[in-house]
Structure formats: structure tokens, C-alpha cells
Amino acid sequence: xxxxxxxxxxxxxxxxxxxxxxxxxxxxxxxxxxxxxxxxxxxxxxxxxxxxxxxxxxxxxxxxxxxxxxxxxxxxxxxxxxxxxxxxxxxxxxxxxxxxxxxxxxxxxxxxxx
Amino acid sequence: xxxxxxxxxxxxxxxxxxxxxxxxxxxxxxxxxxxxxxxxxxxxxxxxxxxxxxxxxxxxxxxxxxxxxxxxxxxxxxxxxxxxxxxxxxxxxxxxxxxxxxxxxxxxxxxxxxxxxxxxxxxxxxxxxxxxxxxxxxxxxxxxxxxxxxxxxxxxxxxxxxxxxxxxxxxxxxxxxxxxxxxxxxxxxxxxxxxxxxxxxxxxxxxxxxxxxxxxxxxxxxxxxxxxxxxxxxxxxxxxxxxxxxxxxxxxxxxxxxxxxxxxxxxxxxxxxxxxxxxxxxxxxxxxxxxxxxxxxxxxxxxxxxxxxxxxxxxxxxxxxxxxxxxxxxxxxxxxxxxxxxxxxxxxxxxxxxxxxxxxxxxxxxxxxxxxxxxxxxxxxxxxxxxxxxxxxxxxxxxxxxxxxxxxxxxxxxxxxxxxxxxxxxxxxxxxxxxxxxxxxxxxxxxxxxxxxxxxxxxxxxxxxxxxxxxxxxxxxxxxxxxxxxxxxxxxxxxxxxxxxxxxxxxxxxxxxxxxxxxxxxxx
Amino acid sequence: xxxxxxxxxxxxxxxxxxxxxxxxxxxxxxxxxxxxxxxxxxxxxxxxxxxxxxxxxxxxxxxxxxxxxxxxxxxxxxxxxxxxxxxxxxxxxxxxxxxxxxxxxxxxxxxxxx
Lengths: 114, 524, 114
Fold this sequence. Notes:
Helices cover 76% and strands 2% of the residues of chain B. Chain B has 20 helices and two strands. The mean pLDDT of chain B is 90. By secondary structure, chain C is an all-alpha fold. In chain C, helix 1 packs antiparallel against helix 2 (27-48) and helix 2 (27-48) packs antiparallel against helix 3 (70-101). Chains A and B meet through strand 1, helix 1, helix 2, helix 4 and helix 5 of A and helix 7, helix 9, helix 10, helix 12 and helix 14 of B.
């Protein structure tokens, strides 16, 4: 344990070796559970094909879900936030400079007043 | 013999070797591509070795000063100058050495990677010359103990960086990003120069230690502080001055993006050097600390939420770079906010600073790794939109492994290095203000969510017909990624060793302004 | 006062430059504004080093009177050199943008946004 001492955070500690041990135990348990399963899986039969209500499976390229579709619900729920923040990134150089000067002026005000 | 010489003059050689090599690169390039590649690799390897030797020296013997043009490198104050160090002095303390280590590791790994990633491109003589100049700028910024010198190296890094961003014109879009980056970093540089002029006008000195020892915190000093703080925070990519970051990071060649991350962190180092060493407790540490904290929290939150909706893989990662910078600002900001309260500093301030500093090196490693994997994917497929990519896990297995390592590390999943530094930040910031800590954790979760999306979009799914011919990335690219991945894993498994060896001394060096001044001016 | 004039001039030039950068949409004019800010910083630096009745800081056969500070002059020279490099780089980038986009209007040069 001296080789890899725990990370003292002042509040608790963190030791990757203990974590790794727990992780290994969890893997073993998972394996044991897995061995209790049915072994009826046969390769190359109807079993391995996706079942889409009896319809034929479409070509692989057509069913892939692109990354842009993920988290649609999340962004939809936060629409009020995104509708304000995304348009701020206008891409116009003048706006970039305005933000920079604005923040500098704002900080001068804060530091000067306090 | 030669080892002694190198150790004695390491700070000078650290700048001189890459700079001379950079200007010789176009000449060597006349001999052919292989000669040039060998030359650049040798120069970068030498620089990295000198950097690591210098850092080792600093960590074992304490702050090192190097006076240019003096009879002896440690003769900072000439006899007849009336106690003013008139020469340019490099002051390499533990924090500088820490940044040198980051630059040495990333610089070398990224260069190896770029040997393959740039192999199909033209104009490589200029590319590698600029690459080495960017290294010079970063190393100079973190080593120098002279404010004007800092400005000069900042400009070197900005110019080289902007030129590299625009290097592959890419129908003009990369040039657009380069122009934005160049304009905004130039105006930032001018702000810094103006602040330096204000300080010089009052204290008749450019040396950081001298100014720090005479600091009065007058109204002019306040203005100088704000100018330095805003310009350097902008260069580091803090929200809401981050707009250039996604543009520049996404359009630069991937190898350069990984290095731009380090360049941004050199600016971040500038922020910390200014507030901790130049001003220290003379400034209103609670207010400035809270300003840094607010910048950090804004960066974390806006960065990660903007990343969630991106469709371009590199632009997404660039927003994550903004978000991760927020963690460093948060950690160091908490340290700054309690700088004048020894009890609080002792109980959680130093730990927060250690977390922030540890996060700097972790971020440079895993973010560099992620940008390199993105570069490998773009190199093989030519596509960068998450909507178009898919199913690459079948053909690019090693790249996928490296991506998983980087993604888990950035999301703070144990046992990778990102978790260790984030844990330090969470627990210490929780003692300071629980709400900040909770925001930091939520941001981490969103980071994981966002990278799950990237992982799904790029690697999962059935093999796509248009990428049927895609092969694994070339070996030099894999080696470059492998070096960074190895560091990520090693730091994850031995966090306390790293913290004790390089992070804690760096945090102590920042918190202790007196030792920095004493190193230059003698034990006053 | 006479000796405040250079500082006032520097402030005026900087203001003109910053306003130009914020409100002109032409990239080339924004670069001009940047150059103005740079000149104002140079002017500020040089006037910092001046003392009433001072001579140029050349020590050979110098009469023993006050001399202007040479450090700021060296800094100004360095900044002029850096400024030339920056302006050249910026203008060449603007030139490439004009070739590829057909415009240098900041409102149109915004393919990167969001």
C-alpha cells in the first residue's frame, strides 16, 4: 500500500487500489450471475436476427441513429435556456470584442467600487 | 561535463533550443522531408529532456533563477544597481516547473502524432517551424520572471497559434477562425502591455518579484489588475470571453488543437501568477477570488451545456475544454478567496488549489488525447459531423479504446486521473460553499452524458457502408495517443504520488509569495 | 498641463481605435482600429519615460542632466516590431478571407457560430 498511497482530500481519501479490488469483486459476482443463465443461444439461426414485428430488417446504413438526435428531450426541456444562450455565439468578431471590452469594463467597476 | 552545462543553463536552453531549431527548420527542410522530421523530433525531444531536467532540479533544490547576461546565472541583483535587478530574469519555481512538465509531455506526444497526421499535407516546413515557435512561446510564458518578457512570449505564442489555426485554409473557414483568434489575442496582448506600463510607471520595475515587493494596490494597480485578469482569462477561454475558443479549436489541425489547450493553460498560469504572486494579499482577495470563482462556474456550466447541442465533434470537444477550464478557475479561485485567512487556507484552500493545479495537467493529458482521437477519426474518414459518422468501432479499435479512456477521464469516472483531481475540488469546495460543489458535480454528469453521445455517434452502430474501407489510424498517431493515455492511467492509479511530487509544491509556491520574492531579491 | 498632453492623446487614440473595432463591420477597418490601439499603447509607453528637461539616454559625452528612461523606449521598439508582425499576419488572413468568401464584412464572415 505504500507504493500507491491513498489520496488525502482533507475530507476523506481515495485509493484506486481499493476501488480496483471492489471492481474486480463486482466483476466476479457478475460473472457468477451470468453463468446461471440459460445457454440456449445458437449462432446463425433466427435467434440472432432483430425482431421488428415480423417486418424484414432494413439495411444497416438506414437504421443508424446519428448523434444529432440524442438528447432531443433534454434540449427541448431547456429550450428557454438554449434559445437565449446559443444565439449569443453569433460568430461576429465585433461581438467577441464587445464581450471582452464589456467584461473588462464591468470588472473595473466592481473592483473600483469595492 | 555536458550534463553540468545543460543543468546550469537549462532555463536559457529551454528557450534557445526550440527557437533556433524553429528558424533552422525551413533550411533543414531543403534536405528533404525525412531529414526535417528527424530534425524537428530531435529538437523537441531535446527540449522535453531539458524541461524535465529543469523541473526535476527545481523540485529537488527549490526555486531556480537565471539572469540573462550576468556573470553568474544566479547574480540577479548587480552590485551597482542599487538593489534593482535590471536584467531579464527567468524565475522557475515549482508552479513554472509544473507547467514545463505539461508542455514537455504534450509537446512531444503531439509532435509524434503530427508526423503521421500531417503526412499528406503541404507546407510542412513552415508548419513545424511554427509548432516549435508555439512551444517557445508557452515555455517562455511559464518560465519568465519579467512582465515585459511575459508579454513578448505571449505574443509569440499568439502569433504562432493563430498562424497554425489558419494553416489549413479549408475553404477559408480555418482562416476565419485564425483571424478571430489573432485579433482578439492581439487586443488582449495590448491590454496586458498597457497594464505593464501602468505598473512600470509606478514601480520603475518590470521584474515580477520587485513589483510584488513594492505593491501598494493603488487605483492604477486595480486597473492594471483588471486589465491583466480579463485579458489572460480571455486567452484561457473563460466564459463569457470564450467565443474564440470553439472556433479556433475546431478549425485548427487536431495536433495543433491539443497544443492550443496547453497554450491556453499557459495563459491560465498567467492569471494565477498575477493574482497570487504579483498582487497576493494586497488585493482584495475575497472579491477577486469570487470574480475568479464566478468566471469558473460560468465556464463550467455554459461550456458543458453548449457542448451538449454541438454536432461537430471537435467543436463539441472545444466547448468541453472551456468547461474544464472552469474547474481550474474554481479550484484556484477558492484558494484565492481564502488567501488571507491562514486557518481556512490550511483546512481547504490549499487542497482546492492542489485540485485545480492537478486538474491542469490532467486536462492537458486527457483533452489532448481526445482531440488526437478526433483527429484520427477525421484523418481516416474525412467527416467531422456526428450525424454522418457511425460504426467506426468495428474498424478503429485502438482509437476507440483511447477515446473511452479520455472520455471517462474527462467525465471524472474512477479510476482515471480526472476523478482524482475533481474529487479534490469537490471536497474542498464543499467546505467553502456547498452549492459550488454541487454545480461542479452536475457539470461532470453532463460531461459524461455528452461523451456518451459522441461515443454512440462515432463508434457504435452497425458498420456503415460509406466507411467500409476505413482502417485503424497510422502507428505514429497511435503512439502519440498511447503516450497520453498511459499518463492518464498512471496519474489515475497513483494520484497521491503525483500530488506529493509535483502538485503540492506548485500550490505551495503559488500561495507563498514571499519565497518567490526572496528567490530573486535575496532573503529580504 | 503640457506634460499630460501625451497621455490624453494616448487615451483619445485608444478610444478611437476601440470604437472603430466595435462599430466598423469591415475586417480591414477593424485591423486599422487594432493598429490605433497599439499606437496609443506605444505613445503611452514612450511618454511614461519622459522627465522634464531630460535628454536622450546616450551616455557618451553626456552632460550631467536628467535623461529620459531608456527601458520604455526599448519596450516600445519591441512592441512596434511585434505590431508589424501582427498587422501583417492579420491583413494576410483578411486577404485570404476575401478571396474565399468574397467579402470582408464581419457580419458575413461567420460560418463558425453556435
